[in-house]
Specification:
13% strand, alpha/beta, globular
Length: 256
């Protein structure tokens, strides 16, 4: 017999308490990055249009942002729209472009209240003007916030990011703005993520086991956590399980 909504929520709360009791608050990943995957397949398995999967995916974003903030994660990066996603049908691209507006319109007051700082990585120039406006409003409204950084990767591709970083560094060298050796630290300053720590933990949903051109430089020493759960079904307990599993790993960074 299927559980009712109340029973499922109670079960979720019990599991959440169990996981929170096992997680060491002193060893949290400082930066969690998530490849949110599986919206379309979630919808298809339910006989629904793909837009329904994307719409439910936004609800998951709300839950995971809230849980990350309460847990004490310092940076949360969500892969929202890649440079490759422009290849999708025009109707789907248009729908995906509407989601950041919807999310920020509804959630921005809460983000401001909770001291969350909205940030964007990627090339905003190709985003439709209404999306650019909504994002800029989010950036401005939370500019002085000092809590969790909520990093949206919009029109983002890591290879594009690295090429632009090389171009920017070369221009600064040629024009005399940068002198001295080019180190990893120097190069990192030219990436979209300049000023942010590299991810400690990468989560990818839907059973795919690839990085899909996401934070290729920054993920060099990240712990990777994969789940077959589609993004619309991903919940706070999945996030807590990923954090708990992260804490069971030994991170040596090349040392013994």
């Amino acid at each position: 017999m299927l559980k009712g909504w109340g029973e499922m929520e109670n079960s979720l709360e019990e599991r959440e308490k169990e996981l929170l009791a096992k997680i060491d608050p002193e060893r949290l990943p400082g930066h969690v990055a998530i490849i949110m995957d599986g919206n379309g397949r979630w919808a298809k398995e339910r006989g629904l249009p793909r837009s329904a999967g994307h719409r439910q995916g936004v609800e998951t974003v709300r839950e995971i942002v809230s849980c990350s903030h309460r847990l004490g994660i310092k940076v949360l990066t969500l892969f929202a729209f890649s440079t490759e996603n422009w290849k999708r049908p025009a109707w789907e691209v248009n729908y995906l472009m509407s989601l950041p507006q919807q999310y920020l319109k509804k959630e921005l007051p809460k983000l401001v209240e909770e001291n969350v700082k909205v940030n964007l990585i990627g090339d905003p120039s190709r985003l439709p003007p209404p999306v650019q406006k909504a994002v800029n409003q989010g950036l401005e409204a939370t500019r002085n916030n000092t809590g969790m950084v909520l990093n949206f990767a919009l029109n983002y591709g890591s290879r594009m990011e690295i090429v632009r970083a090389v171009q920017g560094l070369l221009a600064d060298i040629q024009e005399g703005r940068h002198k001295g050796p080019v180190t990893e630290e120097v190069f990192s300053r030219y990436l979209f993520t300049a000023g942010l720590p590299d991810p400690d933990l990468l989560i990818r949903t839907s059973g795919e086991y690839r990085l899909s051109n996401f934070l290729l430089w920054q993920l060099a020493y990240s712990e990777l956590w994969f789940t077959r759960t589609y993004w619309p079904d991903f919940n706070r307990c999945h996030l807590l399980q990923a954090v708990y599993d992260y804490q069971q790993r030994e991170r040596r960074f090349g040392k013994i």
